[in-house]
DNA sequence: TTTTAAAAGCGACTATGTCGCATTACTGGG
DNA sequence: CCCAGTAATGCGACATAGTCGCTTTTAAAA
């Protein structure tokens, strides 16, 4: 299962990188120049997640948003930061704030999904 | 727009109360004795949310879960606690831990959605 | 009992996301 | 440089979640 380089992968990653924020599948499809199948975009995104290139956030709208991992691997404290979803411009961005929590004994946390919703700096 | 008491409302609230944890629409429909339309269940749940009886959580699966508000109103620090979704038993419960965060100036937070995913005490 | 408006039922509709299968096209080996 | 193996893509179908408009029912006040 070695990964191959394809125009699709490059296009998707390029769009997300340029945007500088988390994007949903439909936003990506809208921004991309070439025509890529919806299922393919999801597969590309999920592969990037497996490879630690992107991470996935579930927002209040129940949709999946994908954001670049900026040094997520290094600390092995993966993706444990807050996200902010603006209800006006609809963008979802990663906040630098680390999510801190303590849980009762016996619980084993595998994933963290923290999204703050409101109005961002630009829109207020 | 005064609210009325209906068997549907009572049945939904009773199921959630007995469960003692957050529930999705389909889980509620499965537990309820009488036959209630899907759209109606959603409307009932959303009305309860408006009235501050329930609060809504979006989990990793993108689905809406509804949980009893346990003194959520009193502090006016509404629903700012963590939630835990178990990948084994699929239940979603409210944790007592308060969510603490600080955001950059100019941002206005209206809602908080924090879900930890993993394996709960019972299932590990 | 009558009235009226909230609530429920029903059907249709819109995503979002996934899956199976046939086809295409990277990439490494010769 | 070409060929074979297999990852990746396209396409269609499908499942599910959630919403909406409209009609009918019904709780509760007059």
UniProtKB/TrEMBL annotation, chains A, B:
Keywords: Metal-binding, Zinc. Pfam families: FUR. GO terms for molecular function: DNA-binding transcription factor activity; transcription cis-regulatory region binding; zinc ion binding. Binds 1 zinc ion per subunit. One of its GO terms (biological process) is regulation of secondary metabolite biosynthetic process. The keyword Zinc applies. This is Fur family ferric uptake transcriptional regulator. It comes from Winogradskyella arenosi. The lineage of its organism: Bacteria, Pseudomonadati, Bacteroidota, Flavobacteriia, Flavobacteriales.
């Amino acid at each position: 299962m070695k990964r191959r380089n394809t125009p699709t992968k490059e296009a998707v990653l390029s769009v997300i990188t340029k945007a500088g924020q988390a994007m949903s599948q439909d936003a990506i499809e809208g921004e991309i120049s070439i025509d890529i199948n919806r299922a393919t975009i999801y597969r590309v995104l999920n592969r990037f997640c497996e490879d630690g290139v992107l991470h996935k956030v579930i927002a209040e709208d129940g949709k999946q948003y994908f954001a670049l991992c900026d040094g997520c691997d290094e600390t092995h404290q993966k993706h444990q930061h807050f996200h902010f979803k603006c209800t006006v411009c609809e963008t979802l961005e990663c906040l630098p704030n680390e999510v801190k929590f303590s849980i009762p004994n016996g619980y084993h946390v595998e994933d963290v999904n923290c999204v703050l919703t409101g109005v961002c700096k630009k829109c207020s």
